[in-house]
Structure formats: structure tokens, C-alpha cells
Amino acid sequence: MRPCFLFDLDGTVADNGEGILKSAQYALDAFGFPNQPEEKLRLFVGPPLDQSFRELYGMSQEEALRAIAKYRERYSVTGVLENHLYPGISELLRDLAQIGQVCLATSKPQVFAEKILETRGVRQYFSLVVGAELSGERTDKGEVIEAALQGLGDPPGDWAVMIGDRKFDVEAGRALGLVTVGVDYGYAPPGEMDRCRPAYRAATVEELAALLKAWAAGKGETER
């Protein structure tokens, strides 16, 4: 059996903050919330957009859906290109693809996730990409991970690891019985990773690479 590596996208594989923050502000301008502080806009990175608009700005579900449509006016044209891979991630994905199955599990619409991976030249390392639908279906992180696991052939939980920068990644992965890794270089607010307590933590991509390769090597030892 080959180990399975499930990666979040925003704040884990790629720094998409610029595109997300600018597109969120673009939408908020239309709803009377100009010039929002960056620390508040950063909270849009990770959770489903409707959740962010509702919880951060008190919008109804109907208003949140209209805000999402406004957000996508900008994001689909400009925001989706405002990103870069974290240094060392491309090499890590390449190495992991040689020893296991690498999957993307993101609450971002799959069409945008695919475009980012293709644009940044790393799509070939992923055996599977699972994201939300533009219709609003499958935005919950647990649903995304479940769909990814099904696509990977339902591996045992101790053979699959969920890697992400927010509590949504850690909590959903743990609830489904996966090993969890929290990365500290992404967009989690201060203290969030301390509270959600992933099985492992990595402060840098270099630490993440060492951790995942050691974990995978350990799985190989158990088969001998």
C-alpha cells in the first residue's frame, strides 16, 4: 500500500492571499464595507466564502451568495493569478509523488484550484484534485476530504495524512480518522493551531518535507 498525502491549497501549497484578500475587499465594497483591515480579510483564507461573509460581516445566506458572485467577478479574471507557490513546495510534491499518492483537497472551487496548479507547473504531481463546485456544493472541508478519500480508493486512515494551515483542515481530517499535520507558515490566526492540536506541526516547508518523508518511511517499515 502506498501512503496518501492530502494537501489543502490556500496557505499550504500556495500563497493565494493577495488574490483572495483583494477579491474579498472588491465584494465588500459593493456591500458598504470599504477599506477593511488586512487582519480581518486574512480570515477569508481557508473557510468556505459563504461562511466568511456570514460570520465576519453578519450577512444573510442570500446576501452571502450575492457577495460570492461579486467576489468571483474579480477572482475569476485576476485573483486566480495572484498567487505563488511556497518555496520548496514544488520539490516536495515531486518527491512525495514518487513514494505515494498526492491529492489536493480544497474548499476552493475545483476549476480555480486546477488552474492554479496548472499555472504554477505542479498539476502533474497530483493524482487527484478535489474541490468545491461553483454551484456551492461540497464546500464543507469534511465533504471535500471524504470525496478525496473515495477517489483514492478509501485508504485506511493511518495511511492517509491531511496537511493544512487552518483548523478546518485539522478538525475535518481528524474526524475522518486521518493523521493530521498543521503548517504554521499559512493563514491561521495566532493560537488557532495550538487550540486545534494537529498530530504534527511544521513551521516551514523544510520541516514539513522532513516530517512527511519520515512518516512515509515509517509506513514502509510496517509492511516489512
Describe this structure in words.
- It is a single chain.
- The protein is an alpha/beta fold and about 220 residues long.
- It folds into 2 domains: about 5-15 and about 85-220, Rossmann fold, CATH 3.40.50; about 15-80, Putative phosphatase, domain 2 (DNA polymerase, domain 1), CATH 1.10.150.
- The protein has helices spanning about 15-30, 40, 50-55, 60-75, 90-100, 110-120, 140-150, 165-175, 190-195, 205-220; strands spanning about 5, 15, 85, 100-110, 130, 160-165, 180-185, 200.
- It has a 6-stranded parallel sheet, with helices on both faces. A two-stranded antiparallel sheet has the order 2-3.
- Helix 8 links the parallel strand 6 and strand 7 (about 180-185).
- Helix 1 crosses helix 4 (about 60-75), helix 3 crosses helix 4 (about 60-75) and helix 5 runs parallel beside helix 10.
- The protein is globular.
- Pfam families: HAD_2.
